[in-house]
Amino acid sequence: MRKRAIMSILLSVFLFTGSVVSHGATTQEKISDAKEKQQENQTSLQQTQEKIEELESKKGESESYLQDLNHQLQDLKESLEQLQKDYDEKQEELTELQGDLEEARKDEEEQYEDMKLRIRYMYENSANDYATMLFESDSIADFLNQAENISKITEYDREQLENYKKTKEEIETKEREVAQEKEAIAKVQQESADKQAAVEELVEATYNQIREYQADIQDQESEENNLLAQISQQEDAINDLLRQAKEEEAAARLAAQKAAEEAAAREAAEKAAAEKAAAEKEAAKKEEAEKQEAQKPQKPQKPSQESNSGQSSEQNNNNSSSSEDEEQEPSIDSSQGKYLGRFKLTAYCTCSICCGKWAGGGTASGAAPTPGRTVAMGGVPFGTKLSINGTIYTVEDRGTTYGHVDILMGSHAEALQFGLKYADVYQVN
Asked: Is there a contact between 376 and 403 (Cβ–Cβ < 8 Å)?
């Protein structure tokens, strides 16, 4: 019986603990899942941060490249402005040369016409002129001087004509050079303009690329913030689950302990009930035997003529029977109070095993249950004082039928130890 009860206790504790452990395992699974998701988010966060760093690096490179392009563009603009100035200067110079060339041409033509008239006049009138000069001259030397002057005039005209031709050629050469320089400047201008347009396209493309990088960086930063928020929430959830797991573990231990205590209490109650039932059964048997023994008729005495041996035997039997009756019959002591009879005595306490739903409460009379004073008995009013084996008790609780006194003990162990007894009961008041 005891072994079976112990096995029952162990089985109940095991089953209860198993259920708690299973519930705890669910919490542990939640913790594991939360940590796994957190690790995934940590990995995603690291990848996002790496993308942000990569985009920031590309953006920085593009910004540096854009700065170089802007410098190039500024240099090209300045170069184009200078080329335009040079072009304008060459145009002015070319215009002046063209004016000079036009003037030279006019001078050339006038000089040429004048020279032709003089030459024609000289050739047409050369004989008369020389004759006139001869006759009008004071001397041969004077004549030669005049002839030489005429020759010098002709030579001067010729030199002047050559100079004008030379000047014209120089002007034409300079004009060609200026035109070539102007054409070269125009070519450089076009190349610079084309390069400026290309640089401006690069600037626009680079600027758009930087804007795309910035938009991507903002998207990645938004994702980073979301991941950080999720990681923070998961950290809080993990902490909550860890606290929950600790609470569940503590509750499991407490519940298992309580289950073990309840099982042990049930075992003790069952044992006490069994012992009490056995004791009551044994007492009932004893009481019934005593009653039957008391109800047996007395054997008639034999005549005195019977032999001494028979008389002695019968006398011994009577003495033995008389002795047994004296043990069962009460020894009334009127000094203790009103004799109520020989009552059955048991014990109880205020635990749930003895009192059930009234455990831990007061007595039926309302008085506080007090070991050594309080007894329960039916058929007499509350407050009745009883003398049992020299101890004065007070009826303060409702008991069984009259003839049975239940004495309050301080613990269940004391109640079990008291067992079942019989004693003479006196009413004191």
From this structure: no
d(CA 129, CA 149): 13
Q: Is 31 helix (H, G, I), strand (E, B) or coil?
A: helix
Termini Cα distance of the chain: 46
pLDDT at residue 348, as a whole number: 93
CA angle in degrees (0–180, nearest 5) for 320-325-327: 100
Residue 142 to residue 148: CA distance in whole angstroms:
10
Residues composing the chain: 429
Cβ atoms of residues 68 and 203 within 8 Å: no
Burial of 160: CB neighbours in 10 Å, binned 0-12, 13-18, 19+: middle
b/e burial code for range 262-271 (CB count within 10 A of at least 16 → b):
ebeebbbeee
Could you give phi then psi for residue 381, rounded to 5 degrees? -70, 155
Helix axis angle for 308-328 and 140-295, nearest 10°, is 140
Distance CA 379, CA 349 (A): 21
Instruction: Match 């184009």 to its residue by tokens.
Output: 80
What is the full DSSP assignment across 38-51? Answer: HHHHHHHHHHHHHH
Q: Tens digit of pLDDT for each residue in 303-330?
A: 333 333 333 333 333 333 333 333 345 5
- Domains of the chain listed by start with CATH number: 2-247 (1.10.287), 334-429 (2.40.40.10)
Q: Which residue, chain included where needed, has tokens 């998961």?
A: 234
What are the tens digits of pLDDT across the range 314-370? Answer: 333 333 333 333 334 556 767 788 999 999 999 999 998 888 788 888 898 999 999
- Rounded CA-CA distance 365/396 in Å is 5
